[in-house]
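Our preliminary data section would be incomplete without showing what the modeling component actually yields. Below, a chain of 532 amino acids is followed by its predicted structure, encoded as tokens that our downstream tools consume directly.
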Amino acid sequence: MIHRDAATSTAPWGSPLLGPVEEKSAIRRVRVQLLLTLPLLIANLIGIAMTVVLAGFVLPGPTLFTRDLLLINAVFTPLCAVAALAVGTVWGTVAGLRTMRWATDPDHVPNAAEQRVTASAPRWMVLQQAMLWTVALVVLTVVYGVAQAALIPKIMLAIGAAAIVVCANSYLIVEFALRPVTARVLRADPQRRRGIGVFGRTMLSWLVGVGVPVALSMTVAVWALADPAVSKARLAVCMLSLGGSALLFGMVLMAQVVAATVAPIKGVRQALRRVEKGDLTAEIPLYDGTELGELQSGFNTMVHGLRERAMIEDLFGKHVGHDVAMAAIASKPVLGGTETEAAALFIDIIGSTTMAATLPAPEIVGILNRFFDIVVDEVERHGGLLNKFEGDAALAVFGTPAPLTDAAGSALSCARAIQRRLRDASDLDAGIGVAAGRVVAGNVGTHNRYEFTVIGDAVNEAARLCELSKSYDERLLSSATTLTAAADTESAQWTLADTVTLRGRLTPTHLALPLPAPKNADESLSRSADSR
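Predicted structure:
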């Protein structure tokens, strides 16, 4: 299950205005529709106001406020504006509903056609705005031109500049409002990229904030040079107004572009911090259709790969041991081994053949699991490596691949701990053998399939001691050589016994047995004092 931090859950698509991830589909549809309709209405109202200011007060030429134009100004033009707003709202709502119809079902995966419609929604809605403003430009230019031909340049410049501002702003508004729906599309097809990109957004901001005012200023300058009737005061008003609009609209558009650019980057940055802290469940919603969406998708792909690697490392560590796994990951494994001092512990269940013949398989598996739970727990607690399982037996090594200051003492202490725990479990009985000495530890096998193993006389001796221990009440044997290699605190817990020649060995082995566990505290204190 993927978890998201508080900042991501409250603003999963880069803004709290877009709602949380857990929001119901019906509520989200209303939210997105409002975010589409209201900002577009406001943008068009601002465009209408911009047209009135430019044509009525800023641009040179004949004035619009005459008795001859009263009917056009007071009736025809407002009706055109209201009609355009109504048509644009209805048209945009219909287009929006068509885009989001499939999105009302939270479990629906959009097909290719639905993905295309949704991905192209910002361009289509901006195209609608452009068509309406083009119709307004043609109609009003003709109407005012018939009434007074000298008004044509002023009307065309004013409406054209406002149309560019509205359309550029509309694209950013639609793209923002449709982020939750776009996220569904990109989740279904992460390779679908239909946005204009970061470069396109920046150029839109430049066009509205710099391009349109500068183009109008240059046009007015040429107009003033060609028409001596344009006064210095009128030219100054034009320059100040266009300069002010460049500052205002440039700031608004740049803020929108920067917000749209920063939101995905901020989400990736927050998620990266979680990954740095070791949280590999981090994942960010993919909602941007530009290069930033590829950054979001790349982050999710990276974290997915890290999760897979962590899972493989964990599984690898469980199979071969954590130390062996880390050593293999940290360096390039090669075939062969190195000679080192180590201790081996061999353990084998007693009566496993009878168990296999008399007990059902599930019960045998249960017994083996409880047995190996004890063995693995104690081996790891004492710093050893459970090198391999062999049916109902196991081999543990101490001192390699991770070095130990007292490998022999750790192995002996581990063996005694296992012995105590097995005796507490009345249905588990096993022989244990411990030996220390020079061994060869390394990778054995072929270039495409090998395993870490330990080979040497100490390993063989531990296996033979394990066999022999089954005939002793203690069920645990070691050797005098191993006690000599161990620290005094551990060797004091053992006593020497018979000398025997183990099967397959040429030299005799002086056996060592663990001392009986103290029955009470007084006996424990007495034994501790004697050992000192």
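The longest strand covers residues 430-446. Confidence is low (pLDDT under 50) at residues 1-8, 521-532. Preliminary results of this kind motivate Aim 1 of the renewal.
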